[in-house]
């Protein structure tokens, strides 16, 4: 006979602690833990990162080629002459906007995988599709975020960078806390404002790592990308907390009492 006992608990912070700023966010500790998770889960996590990157690149070039006759030729001419045809910058912006919106649910799934790692759970590549159940909400949040950043970039570019940072937790709030898109964006902004300086330092360092990785023909992205997602997961855990469920199974039979088995489950 088997009896299951389920118990929910919260790991890390909470919405209340996020809004009050009463949680620990050490830059060095976040980086150290993120690096540990990156190494520990590298071979199981890297395939999801690679699939997401390929998907984003494919959609980017499809969107670009729908606006430009031959994007490859344009890039070759830019490398030789340093000039771009009229309207090409706008085409790049639209292509970038398109891939971010279309791949948003898969991006959310990868974020959930990294968040699970920060909670001590293992993941499989197929879990990158876990964000699909939140497709509409995630796309709405992404659209609003990108539109606001686009408008801010026209007025004052530093504000666009701030909004990118301010909305960085919205996707996980939608998927893990089941929040509505606009509520998630506003909550993320309010919480980030409580720890703006350490968060800005963290993401500035990550931006520097991306630049360094690209200088080495992009090979370094194999480490920087999973590191980035793990940093996001750890920050989210410390700020808002992660809801986990302990399932204790008690196996009993007529001859002996059996063993008690426990497992931790996160339900996206």
Outline the structure in words.
The protein is mostly helical and 268 residues long. The protein has one domain. It is 66% helix and 10% strand. The protein has twelve helices and three strands, in the order βααααααααααααββ. A three-stranded antiparallel β-sheet has the order 1-2-3. Strand 2 (242-251) and strand 3 form a beta hairpin. The chain is globular. The chain crosses the membrane at residues 42-64, 97-116, 128-148, 154-175, 196-229. This is Proline and glycine rich transmembrane protein gene in bax. Keywords: Membrane, Transmembrane, Transmembrane helix. It comes from Vibrio eleionomae.
Listing every helix as H and every strand as E from the N terminus to the C terminus, the arrangement reads EHHHHHHHHHHHHEE
Gross morphology is globular
**What percent of residues are in strands?**
5-15%
Task: Work out the count of structural domains.
Answer: 1
Q: Roughly how much helix do the residues carry, as a percent range?
A: 55-70%
What is the distance, rounded to the nearest whole angstrom, between the alpha carbons of the first and last residues?
Answer: 29 Å
Which class do the helix and strand fractions yield? Answer: mainly alpha
Give the quaternary arrangement of the chains: single chain
Strands, total number: 3
Rg over CA atoms, rounded to whole Å, is 21 Å
Number of helical stretches of at least 4 residues: 12
Point out poorly predicted stretches. Answer: none
Main beta-sheet annotation: 3 strands, antiparallel
Protein name: Proline and glycine rich transmembrane protein gene in bax
Organism: Vibrio eleionomae
Keywords: Membrane, Transmembrane, Transmembrane helix
